[in-house]
């Protein structure tokens, strides 16, 4: 089983455990803020399932209907996560409003906080694993899931502080106030997840650092060619796509031109994992005298 799929399954299991703990914390205390935390955990679990499905689809090899692979499935999952985060925030706003209208004294706040803190620590550990591994594996779904969990860690910490202050001061209105602040933070997180995922769906170019690396490799490895131009890149999940025109001397044989292409492709695959390269070879009169200068 691929590591990406194992992590996605792990997210579902961790999500179930954290949801159970946070629901218990709310049941013990009756806190609106802790209820908002539990509601967010429901979204965490749902998005973990979405990430699992997306990772399974993205891992499928290219076929006749999807010749470029299924990598973009992970972006759809990340967009869904963002939307669900926003929906959770709206539910929390609703509960916070009712709490403002009728503040209530919390039951067993210390016991509930201890349970909630345990769930928060577990979420923090797993979020770190997801973000680090997701970046290494170039998995947008895992990274989005990890960032979402980090948001949950931050908001859960804020909830714990708010509930503790309400208990110490007796200002029970702090409980729904903290729930409202949680909702605002969640809305911001959801927007960021959706924005980053849409960039992948819109075939956004690779980061400038990666693009510079690709250009440098073409320049140094395409010795024998005249120039390279019209370089285009995009990323889709773990895959990177690059295509460009390679101008060679008019008298060069097809064999020699193909050797140059093979050399460039091999160097690019070594430097950029999971890259797909498409090179269009052109004769010298097609030179644009711009683009990438080949170093002989």
UniProtKB/TrEMBL annotation:
InterPro entries: Cation_efflux (IPR002524), Cation_efflux_CTD (IPR027470), Cation_efflux_CTD_sf (IPR036837), Cation_efflux_TM (IPR058533), Cation_efflux_TMD_sf (IPR027469), CDF_Transporter (IPR050291). Coiled coil: none annotated. Residues 207-284 form the Cation efflux protein cytoplasmic domain. Signal peptide: none annotated. Residues 11-202 form the Cation efflux protein transmembrane domain. One of its GO terms (biological process) is intracellular zinc ion homeostasis. Belongs to the cation diffusion facilitator (CDF) transporter (TC 2.A.4) family. NCBIfam families: CDF. Keywords: Cell membrane, Membrane, Transmembrane, Transmembrane helix, Transport. The keyword NAD does not apply. This is Protein p34. GO terms for molecular function: cadmium ion transmembrane transporter activity; ferrous iron transmembrane transporter activity; zinc efflux antiporter activity. It is found in: Cell membrane. PANTHER family: MITOCHONDRIAL METAL TRANSPORTER 1-RELATED. One of its GO terms (cellular component) is plasma membrane. The chain crosses the membrane at residues 7-29, 41-59, 75-93, 113-132, 153-171. It is a multi-pass membrane protein.
């Amino acid at each position: 089983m691929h590591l990406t799929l194992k992590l996605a399954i792990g997210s579902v299991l961790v999500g179930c455990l954290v949801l159970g703990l946070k629901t218990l914390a709310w049941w013990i205390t009756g806190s609106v803020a802790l209820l908002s935390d539990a509601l967010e955990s429901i979204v965490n679990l749902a998005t973990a399932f979405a990430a699992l499905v997306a990772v399974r689809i993205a891992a499928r090899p290219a076929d006749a209907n999807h010749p470029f692979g299924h990598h973009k499935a992970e972006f759809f999952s990340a967009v869904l996560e963002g939307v669900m985060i926003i929906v959770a925030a709206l539910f929390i706003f609703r509960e916070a409003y009712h709490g403002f209208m009728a503040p209530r004294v919390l039951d067993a706040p210390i016991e509930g906080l201890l349970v909630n803190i345990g769930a928060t620590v577990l979420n923090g550990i797993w979020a770190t694993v997801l973000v680090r591994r997701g970046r290494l594996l170039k998995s947008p779904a895992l990274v989005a899931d990890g960032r979402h969990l980090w948001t949950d860690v931050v908001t859960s910490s804020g909830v714990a502080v708010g509930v503790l202050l309400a208990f110490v001061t007796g200002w029970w209105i702090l409980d729904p106030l903290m729930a409202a602040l949680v909702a605002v933070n969640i809305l911001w997180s959801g927007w960021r997840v959706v924005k980053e995922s849409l960039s992948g769906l819109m075939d956004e170019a690779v980061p400038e650092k990666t693009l510079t690396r690709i250009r440098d490799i073409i320049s140094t490895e395409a010795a024998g060619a005249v120039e390279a131009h019209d370089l285009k890149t995009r990323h889709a999940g773990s895959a990177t796509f690059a295509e460009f025109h390679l101008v060679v001397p008019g008298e060069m044989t097809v064999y020699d031109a193909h050797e140059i292409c093979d050399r460039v492709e091999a160097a690019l695959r070594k430097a950029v994992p999971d890259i797909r390269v498409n090179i269009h070879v052109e004769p010298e009169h097609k030179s644009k005298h711009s683009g990438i200068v080949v170093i002989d």
